């Protein structure tokens, strides 16, 4: 992995973007039921209270000016940046809480999200002399921390935390990037991408808001098991008595090591079909009495990445117990169902378990993982999406490292978010990646940048030596399948 020369990112401007003043001066201000100024957190929000901010980076090639002699920096400052700011301000009309702050008053039993007139979202404007095409390429491995100057820092303290921060970075004559930092206790992935797509559509249409009504009503999230009380107590007891902090856990605040490498890997639709055939063949060879009725693209992707990682990390035929964790959209699974446009967290946790004792090739472990994931998904029908939810905070976030040999893998993002469809007016993204996986070790998944391919892009951050072993193994496994 080549070591590039250190490049500079110059901060040009740090400003605040607020909803239009006319929103509050109008005879009919925003309806509190459709765009509230304060939101209480449900148990599904509290689940993510002290998780590090989610950071995403989106690269766009520079749009071609009408006049080929136009200075690109001048064009960016005169056209692109004002459009981004204006459309973002308009978008906040429908998403007022995102300009607010999260706090946990002593008088409140749980944290609250409050927006006050005058609150705004921090927007950093920067300029970089780095190689845009290298950073936005998908064939190179590079140091994980190279992305850090391109994403904003979310203003966080124990008493008060911003919900959202943005950064737009210009790469003169090459392209631009949009960096997002978001507090997970306020938005899940589906909500965040709904907001980002609304912003993109508003920018592309030069100021026309789409006919979209975000749904904020917290009363649809029922809590018969008292999970809100359970989670609140667990967070209060975590890292000290009566701890009302709204920033992330101390264990998540360590600096990202310099020996971590970032890579992007592609699974085309043809690759996924190859893996599906491999699994079916292996099941037939094993004379599996309970073959899966449906083998999803998600289970094949996750299982294949894990099988390659397991070999690289040396945990096959060991005493390790592997936990493959993933988020589940609760919206259609709760009673009553929650609208698709619900803004907030509405995801649960599910875990597939694999015992790694035994011998076998890639096909064997791929099939074993696919079956474990498939059975975990199927159990949602019989057990419900909230089965075991009482232990989600205490087990996955607050618990100390377990003494037994357990390896937990997790997933960030989803191809269903279709982030590559996000067009601000100058085409589809060249690349998008979840920067924060270098903090939590998750595997990021998104749709493919190829038009209509229906493939999957996989983002990974590993130690450099592991990444250099993973890349050829990943490629060869698809050739051999």
UniProtKB/TrEMBL annotation:
It comes from Trema orientale. InterPro entries: CAT-like_dom_sf, Plant_metabolite_acyltrans. The keyword Transferase applies. SUPFAM superfamilies: CoA-dependent acyltransferases (SSF52777). It comes from the Eukaryota. Keywords: Acyltransferase, Transferase. The keyword Protease does not apply. This is Transferase. Pfam families: Transferase. GO terms for molecular function: acyltransferase activity, transferring groups other than amino-acyl groups.
